[in-house]
Amino acid sequence: MPTMYKFSEKNITSVRSRPRLALTLGDPAGIGPEVILKALRDPEVSKSCDVTVVGSRDLLVETYTKLKAENSEPLANPAEISILDVPLDKHIQDEIIIGTGNAASGAASFAYMETAIASTVAGQFDGIVTGPIAKSAWKAAGYNYPGQTELLAEKSGAKRVGMLFVAHSPHSGWTLRTLLATTHIPLSQVPKVLTAQLMTEKLDLLVECLEKDFGLQTARIVIAGLNPHSGEQGQLGHEEQDWLIPWIEQERKNRPNLHLEGPIPPDTMWVKPGQAWYGSIEPSKAADAYLALYHDQGLIPVKLMAFDRAVNTSIGLPFVRTSPDHGTAFDIAGKGIADATSMKAAIQLAAELVSQRLKIM
To answer: Do residues 133 and 16 both lie within one domain?
Structure first.
């Protein structure tokens, strides 16, 4: 049986305290150590929270030394960072190769995650910001999880989780929030997996998150159609007529305090979010959140608008978890050219969400 940690919100710091965040190093062969050192160099990032890096001190120092020698952009000095050191067996550390994910780097990143989760559940931290990992490296190390979210859910005992992407527009100040009803499954499986029950579960998670983490009690939520033109009354697909439209109508009755719109044709649903993002309409004309039915339906527009700013937020966990919306980028690891914008945004959003939860405790 896998170890499950018991979390209680009583463990969270008092309302007068600064949020305490665990920041995992991610796969040490990728850009995680670099973007962490760049992000923590920015005083704006940690001014409202206390950040502790969870990972191998030696590997972080190696990254710092190498990048400093190559005249990289400003970096935080590991000697001045709070680090929860996770020592590695020597044979594992010796097999970690910058730019190449393998069993050793997978074992390391998994150990960092386990340590961060256990420490957070024990009350040492209020939330976790996760550096990018490689699922293939986890698998090579013998850990068969689809991703970090599933490990977080298992270890914390969360039964329902969702993948919410959040980004603050630098143009208008508007906040884009996009939840995926389905995530990493083949497109051919989406119509089979989507059900009214699943949609209710995801909507429940979204509403709870908007209320608890963003203080939105009467949210406006837009729900996408599945087929082109939302099926065009059954001419281009039957899912909308068979169950999606009846489900939305029932949810409107069940949730009179919400403003539910949909199903909106997927090719037009993102027009107002784009206009709100770039400031061509008042942000109030866009919705508080968007519920996309499958991975690319939600993430293509998110990445077009906010590729370097979007933050992946796991909702449904008993604590806050955010992550930059990018991968390990092994191809540029160690070159000093990785962009830390998304990592900065992930830390800042985690601090905002923890602070919001503290206000309502």
So the answer is: yes
Residue 3: predicted pLDDT: 57
What per-residue confidence (pLDDT) applies to 233?
Answer: 87
Mean pLDDT of all residues in 74-98: 95
Q: Which helix (H) or strand (E) holds 320?
A: strand 320-324
Q: How many CA atoms lie within 13 A of 253 on its CB side?
A: 5
pTM for the model stands at: 0.89
Question: Contact, 345 vs 168, CB < 8 A?
Answer: yes
Q: How far apart are CA 149 and CA 158, in angstroms?
A: 10
Quickly state the pLDDT bin for 251 (edges 50, 70, 90). very high
Q: Residue 220: what are its φ and ψ, rounded to 5°?
A: -105, 120
Please report, as a single letter, which amino acid is at residue 296: D
Among residues 316, 333, 353, which one ends one of the domains? 316
Pairing of strands 289-292, 220-224: parallel
CB 227 within 8 A of CB 236: yes
CA distances 346 to 95, 129, 312, Å, are 29, 7, 8
Q: Is the dihedral of CA 294, 296, 300, 306 positive or negative?
A: positive
In this structure, how many other beta carbons lie within 10 angstroms of the beta carbon of residue 142? 10
Full residue range of the structural domain in which residue 35 is found? 1-158+318-361
Provide CB contacts within 8 A for 318, sequence distance 6+.
7, 8, 9, 121, 156, 157, 158
3-class secondary structure per residue, 283-301: HHHCCCEEEECCHHHHHHH
CA–CA gap between residue 98 and residue 115 (Å, rounded): 22
CATH number of the domain to which 337 belongs = 3.40.718.10
Confidence band of 146 (pLDDT split at 50, 70, 90): confident
When pLDDT is averaged across residues 168-172 and rounded to a whole number, the result is 96
How far is 301 from 274, CA to CA, in rounded Å? Answer: 8
Distance CA 36, CA 344 (A): 8
- pLDDT mean over 8-33: 79
User: 253 and 200 in one domain?
Assistant: yes
Count of beta carbons in the 10 Å neighbourhood of residue 43 = 7
